[in-house]
Amino acid sequence: MIDETLVKNTVIELLKDSSTKLPLDVKNALEKAYEIEEGPAKAQLEAIIKNIKMAEESSTPLCQDTGVHIFFVKIGDVGNSKLEKKLPNIIIEGVREATRTIPLRPNAVHPLTRKNPGDNVGDYMPYVNFTPIDSDYIEITAMPKGAGSENMSKVAMLNPSDGLKGIKKFALDTVVSAGSKPCPPTIIGLGIGGSADISIKLAKMALLRPIDQRHPDPTIASLEKELFEAFNSLGIGVMGLGGKTTVLGVNAELGYCHTASLPVAINVQCWAGRKATARIYKDGRVEHLTYKR
Amino acid sequence: MDKILNLPLDEKTVRGLKIGETVYLNGIFFTARDEAHMHALEYAKEGKKIPYDFKGAAIYHCGPIMAKQNDKWRAVAAGPTTSTRMNSLEPEFIEKFKVSAIIGKGGMSKPTVDAMQKFGCVYLAITGGAAVLAAKGIKEVLGVEWYELGMPEALWVLVGEKFGPLTVAIDAHGNSLYADVEKEVERNIPKAKEILKI
């Protein structure tokens, strides 16, 4: 049966998987980039690919920036309402233990005093997004987010008349000004619509989708493809040292917005697009979706 | 044959490095990012001595994951952080402490490039995110200062053994690979706009 310890241990496993491995879609995109690049870009990609292998083999975090800890949790009916209420605390305890045992870098600090409690836990951190769903499992996604790429994220409140052109211009400006800083080749999450906060949430949620899967809406899918081509024509390249590969993928999500606004946001993800998802069923069965057992 | 440089570096060696060259480092070097930079500059302002002499040293923009076993620190993962965050601090840092190399990712802005030219310092790029590979080149962790700043922000004293590969991305003569790429990107923007029909 599902219980507190099982959920906590699963959280720790997800943190370990997400910090030491990369999803197949991202690895494939990096391999593909390696094939087409030459010169310094190829050498950088060689180091990246070699590093991924070393991290996987030694179960060591592939990047020292193991991020701040963001979770997406879908809560179904597992017949244990007491457990559901305890979920936020169970996840916090999981983060504490994983920080100590993996180990993860203690990144969470007070924004003003910069004091570091050393356990990646503080107000609103880890941050957990809960969504109720009609199912007999709890699905947890761990998405550690490093600061180098997160720092390049932007939101803009466009006028409705700016339309698709305005969105593309904003996206291009954001990628150009990010330049070498977010550890390119990056994955660009684009959030269109909602409100200011929802657009940036949509941009982050877009990063949950594999980069080889296009948006189901053909208009958004073609926007993703167009932006992908445009960004890769810029020549920023791997680590900003030039080349053909500036982005590995562009994923967009869309939400309805107020008739008087057009919010648009970009959440930048470095090449280490880390995440791991698992489902814990009512009967105690755990199904790992990103890294199958 | 791989070019290995021994730390600390002398001015002749530094001035002889060319952009695009690949090098490795042997010897003692230090991590310092936002907080350690500010801390060291405050020390200098107050006339206090910093714990180590940085003359000819390599400073690594890195907040590592360190693990302590039997009272001894070990580098678990130690890739670079984004150097541009130190843009406003680095020119003064180079001038005050006479460091000879900055290791990081993403490059640095013109005032730092100018300070590197003036005082004889280079920027060595290491692959961002490749933290296990980087840690492999750290033979030993000699110690840590200012640990109260937190693990990522503390000043770690490392011993490199063929630490790299590092690309000379800004030399001591005012040349920067990043500035070259930026110019190229400017030239490519019209093409990108054409693709986007904007």
Automatic annotation (TrEMBL), chain A:
One of its GO terms (molecular function) is 4 iron, 4 sulfur cluster binding. The keyword Metal-binding applies. InterPro entries: Class-I_Fumarase/Tartrate_DH, Fe-S_hydro-lyase_TtdA-typ_cat. Residues 9-278 form the Fe-S hydro-lyase tartrate dehydratase alpha-type catalytic domain. Keywords: 4Fe-4S, Iron, Iron-sulfur, Lyase, Metal-binding. Belongs to the class-I fumarase family. This is Fumarate hydratase.
Automatic annotation (TrEMBL), chain B:
This is Fumarate hydratase. Keywords: Lyase. One of its GO terms (molecular function) is hydro-lyase activity. It comes from Candidatus Methanofastidiosum methylothiophilum. It comes from the Archaea. Belongs to the class-I fumarase family. It holds the Pfam family Fumerase_C. InterPro entries: Fe-S_hydro-lyase_TtdB-typ_cat (IPR004647), Fe-S_hydroAse_TtdB_cat_sf (IPR036660). Residues 8-180 form the Fe-S hydro-lyase tartrate dehydratase beta-type catalytic domain. NCBIfam families: ttdB_fumA_fumB (TIGR00723). The keyword Lyase applies.
